[in-house]
Design brief:
D-Maltodextrin-Binding Protein, domain 2; five-stranded mixed β-sheet; three-stranded parallel β-sheet; 10 helices; about 20% strand; Amino acid ABC transporter substrate-binding protein, PAAT family (TC 3.A.1.3.-); Solute-binding_3/MltF_N; SBP_3_CS; signal; Iontro_rcpt_C
């Protein structure tokens, strides 16, 4: 009986100690550090991009600034290549990914997502020469059409899944894909609606036709490491607050409904 009491006492002690260890959360780490570290790839207009001064600006950047301010900490933006953005989060190179990331079941196996902050979809830019024959993504489902998107994105997956018979070409960056489209190297480029709106406004005149009706449903969300329930709860409550007090509407109007920011990146 004495041994049983000792075992029970040890178990009770563990129950007292372990919750404190298990509950350690990224939110606590951020506050202790005094810095919120945000991972993003600044090549996705208008969510994150580099201006003429070399500064990272955009929709996600303004949201990150608001989060850091609400936490009472400094903000550090970590420039990260897209193909390594989740692995770098998992190895704690930063605390959160805020980089126009689409919420997918595949990604959700590796990370937790806060509630979506915007919903977009895939749209298509095509060469003007094929506009008479191509009215939707379905018309591109032919090997004679060279269709591009960015490597490792939902645009690439949507193209391979929904336009499987096209001649698919992947690009490391959105800019490379649009350039090849303008130069006639490919027939169409598939990508997220907000970026395509800007690309068409910048380079599409008299050369491209924009099929602007999205053919996929894609919510964008902020990604964090799994198991950080306090951080996740904080982010969701923050989003509820800024949607209610008008902060979100101002950021949306600045980056999505207006193109005044273009003069900051154009040379």
């Amino acid at each position: 009986m004495k041994h049983v009491k000792v075992v029970v006492a040890c178990l009770l002690a563990l129950c007292i100690v372990l919750p404190g260890i298990v509950s350690a959360d990224t939110l606590d780490e951020i506050q202790d550090r005094g810095v919120l570290r945000v991972g993003m790839e600044p090549g996705y207009m208008p969510f994150e991009m580099t201006n003429q001064k070399g500064e990272i600006i955009g929709f996600d950047v303004d949201m990150a600034k608001g989060i850091a301010k609400a936490m009472g900490v400094k903000l550090e933006l970590v420039n990260t290549a897209w193909d390594g953005i989740i692995p770098a989060l998992l190895t704690k190179k930063y605390d959160i990914i805020m980089s126009g990331m689409t919420v997918t079941q595949e990604r959700n196996l590796k990370v937790n997502f806060a509630d979506p902050y915007i919903v977009i979809g895939q749209t298509i830019l095509i060469k003007k020469e094929i506009a008479g024959d191509v009215k939707s993504y379905k018309d591109l489902n032919n090997a004679k059409y060279k269709v591009g998107s960015k490597l490792g994105t939902t645009g690439e997956k949507a193209t391979k899944r929904m336009i499987p018979n096209c001649s698919y070409i992947s690009f490391d960056t959105e800019q490379e894909g649009i350039t090849d489209l303008v130069n006639g190297q490919i027939d169409a480029f598939v990508y997220d609606l907000p970026y395509m709106e800007i690309a068409y406004a910048q380079k599409g005149e008299n050369k491209l036709v924009y099929l602007d009706k999205p053919f996929t449903y894609e919510p964008l969300g902020w990604a964090i490491r799994r198991g950080n329930h306090d951080f996740l709860n904080w982010l969701n409550n923050y989003m509820t607050q800024v949607r209610s007090d008008g902060t979100y509407d101002k950021i949306y109007a600045k980056w999505i409904q207006s193109d005044a920011w273009l003069k900051q990146i154009q040379k």
